[in-house]
Amino acid sequence: MYKQRKVSVIFPAYNEEENIVHAINDFFATGVVDEMIIVNNNSTDRTAERVLSTQAILVNEEKQGFGNAVQRGLREATGDYIIMAEPDGTFKGADVFKLLSYADDFGMVCGTRTVKELIWEAANMNWFIRMGNLVIAKLLEWLYNTPALTDCGCTMRLIRKEALEKFRTRLSVGGSHFLPEMVILASLHGVRLIEIPVNYSSRIGVSKITGSLKGLFQTGLNMVLLMVKYKFKRGI
To answer: Nearest to residue 6, comparing CAs of 33, 24, 30?
Structure first.
């Protein structure tokens, strides 16, 4: 609980057996996380088995893709504050307090991994990735008149339950470019948002999205196309 409000954490998980138990324990160790929803997205390793050895809740999502897994987690979460993160070792449970400290004033609090002082050694955030994230984030900021943004792909963020309900049924992206859609819809539905720096560490295992140059370009292109589509879409 945080200020008498329930806190849920969502982990989308695809073949995360190496670090998932540590990540679950790390977030529970904060003492404010009441519920952890682990969305097993067709893992072929022992991810599900590892989750069942913890206090976390395991759910299975057969529709493959980061966005599909997160959307399932958002439907399952019962907290007043819902925090998204990943179980691959890149994020620290202690940063939950950073997000929560802004939750009274903002409906959505997005993390940014572009502050170099918080990028740990061996983290997958080289100059090229940082600049790509920054350019796409600034495009998003310009197109939708959002507060200052520097990272379009940070998966650690918080959303208040009542803010999510304003647009949850409109979420449609099942792939890795889901994150900008969340920001776009929040902005279009009057949700106040802010971006704050979080720690970013080295990943345990290989990234399914940014682990290859092809994956980076494809994700970036999908994000840009999504922004343009929403900009010219009517009825939002």
So the answer is: 33
pTM, two decimals, is 0.93
pLDDT digits (tens, 9 = 90+) for 167-176: 999 999 999 8
> Domains, the chain, ranges and CATH?
7-232 (3.90.550.10)
